[in-house]
Design a protein that fits this description.
single chain; about 525 residues; mainly alpha; three-stranded antiparallel β-sheet; two-stranded antiparallel sheet; 19 helices; 5 strands; globular
Length: about 525
């Protein structure tokens, strides 16, 4: 016992994650012990402070990590980790603002008591008394904490635990919509079942790779692959299964089936959070894993994953053309963007990691902002009563004339999705397509360019409806309490800033190196 030495804990390195997860635990305690009327404002304040605090800590960690990346056993604190976590904390902050907002009508996006059976007396009572549970905010922080661990994991067990911490709260959150409750339940069940498939693939692949390398460390793969050439089938199957698990999470085809239904049924602020943050976390983890494995196996997998990228782009592009629902349209848009981002990972160019994260940051800001706009556009009945979200495209007619500021923000987000100059989406596509050409997969860039031109059609169809048609009597734009309006405005400014002044962010992200012990 005299020789026992306490392990050294790098508290400063773990501080951003501890702040987020600590905020989640405190949120649960507030839900359990605070007076009913104080719970909601307290957990909202906690969530905003936790995400803002994580942003500040990550900003302080950036320079030390650029100078000396460190490995804390199974946790890697390198520039990839800090950059991905910074993007996640920023997206989490704005997503919490959109979730917390209530409109001038006095309602939010979430059911008063999600456990109430739809159309039951219990639900009617919750509505009448204005009862509002707020456990959605601790769940968001738990999910965000899992996402922040995900790209830092250098161990297959840690990777799997982070995946579950990220995913399980999202399964619950998808089932909490205020309206269209049955659809919300269905989306949560689909997400849960297909999420279990993705976890199964990840575990199976991890088991194969553990059997091959005799180590659970992801960074040990490179040495094991170069040393053992007689068991190549095992490593090929293992890498493929782990990649399939990650491709499920980003909604790449043919693993995309859950995306449109879940995005449509989940509460709209949760959809924005899922679409933006899960992509950042999963693509950052994919970069770390693919960089380690692909150094030796790139030519075994290049054309397989290139085919996945092409299929993803084609599905997102052509299925999006026929959508008549804004949320489904944005869901297929997210599938197409997953294909574009995958192109940047396959290119494996110097600075390409930073370009992928730049793309995901620009896409994330536009996505949270766009879904924030969707929460404010509501249906209206013949008596003038305000209904749920007006997701049908025809109900967006004339919004640009009645609410030019909101429609203008939506225009910026759609232009960014389409990759039009002076937006973050244009710079993101430019650097990713450039990497594809330099990396010897220029034909992928050609597919991406053609698909971008086609996807612009369905974005501009919505623009035409908003600005060049007569306003509809079936819809109305409700006023935000202020939080959604703030998030939408800052996301729109951020989207333009990334397009007009991309230099500082790009130069910072291009310094990313991936630490392989």
């Amino acid at each position: 016992m005299d020789n026992f030495q306490a392990p050294e804990v790098h508290w400063v390195s773990l501080a951003p994650i501890l702040i987020v997860l600590g905020g989640a635990v405190l949120g649960v305690l507030v839900e359990a012990f605070a007076p009913a009327k104080a719970r909601r404002p307290l957990v909202i304040a906690l969530s905003i402070l936790a995400t803002a605090g994580a942003c500040v800590m990550l900003a302080l960690r950036w320079i030390p990590v650029l100078e000396t990346p460190v490995t804390l056993g199974e946790y890697m604190e390198d520039p990839l980790t800090v950059a991905a976590q910074s993007a996640l904390a920023i997206i989490g902050f704005f997503a919490v603002l959109v979730m917390a907002d209530r409109t001038s009508v006095g309602d939010g996006a979430f059911a008063g008591q999600p456990s109430d059976r739809p159309d039951s007396a219990a639900e009617e009572l919750s509505e009448r008394k204005g009862y509002q549970r707020s456990e959605i905010f601790p769940l968001t922080l738990f999910s965000l904490g899992g996402m922040m661990i995900f790209p830092a994991a250098d161990n297959f067990v840690t990777l799997f635990v982070a995946l579950e911490v990220m995913s399980l709260p999202l399964y619950i959150m998808a089932a909490t919509a205020r309206r269209r409750r049955q659809l919300s339940y269905e989306s949560a069940l689909k997400y849960f079942v297909l999420g279990a498939f993705s976890s199964g693939f990840l575990l199976m692949g991890s088991a194969f790779l553990f059997g091959f390398s005799n180590s659970l460390r992801i960074s040990a793969l490179a040495e094991a692959i170069s040393a053992h050439t007689n068991m190549e089938w095992m490593v090929l199957v293992g890498v493929f299964c782990v990649m399939v698990g990650l491709l499920f999470k980003v909604g790449a085809a043919p693993f995309h089936a859950w995306t449109p239904d879940v995005y449509t049924g989940a509460p709209t602020p949760v959809t924005g959070f899922m679409a933006a943050a899960v992509k950042i976390a999963a693509f950052a983890a994919m970069i770390r894993f693919y960089t380690v494995a692909a150094a030796y196996l790139q030519w075994d997998f290049l054309y397989i994953f290139a085919a996945v990228a092409v299929l993803t782009i084609l599905v997102g592009t052509f299925a999006g053309l026929v959508q008549d629902d804004v949320k489904r349209l944005l869901a297929y848009s997210s599938i197409a963007h997953a294909g574009f981002i995958l192109m940047g990972i396959l290119a494996m160019e110097k600075g390409g990691t930073g370009h992928v994260l730049f793309y995901t940051l620009g896409y994330g800001l536009a996505t949270v902002g766009a879904f924030g706009v969707v929460t404010l556009v509501r249906g209206r009945d013949a008596d003038g009563n305000v209904l749920g979200e007006a997701t049908s495209l025809r109900k967006w007619a004339g919004i640009g004339r009645t609410n030019p500021w909101l429609a203008g923000a939506m225009l910026i987000f759609l232009l960014s999705f389409a990759g039009i100059p002076l937006t973050g989406g244009f710079i993101g596509k430019f650097v990713i397509f450039s990497d594809a050409i330099k990396g010897g997969v220029g034909w992928l860039a050609i597919v991406g360019l053609v698909a971008s031109a086609i996807t612009a059609f369905y974005y501009f169809r919505l623009v035409r409806l908003m600005f060049f048609t007569e306003p509809s009597d079936e819809s109305v734009v409700v006023k935000s309490e202020g939080l959604s309006a703030l998030a939408i405005a800052v996301c729109a400014i951020g989207t333009l800033a990334l397009g007009v002044f991309p230099g500082p962010v790009l130069s910072l992200l291009e310094k990313i190196v991936i630490l392989i012990p």
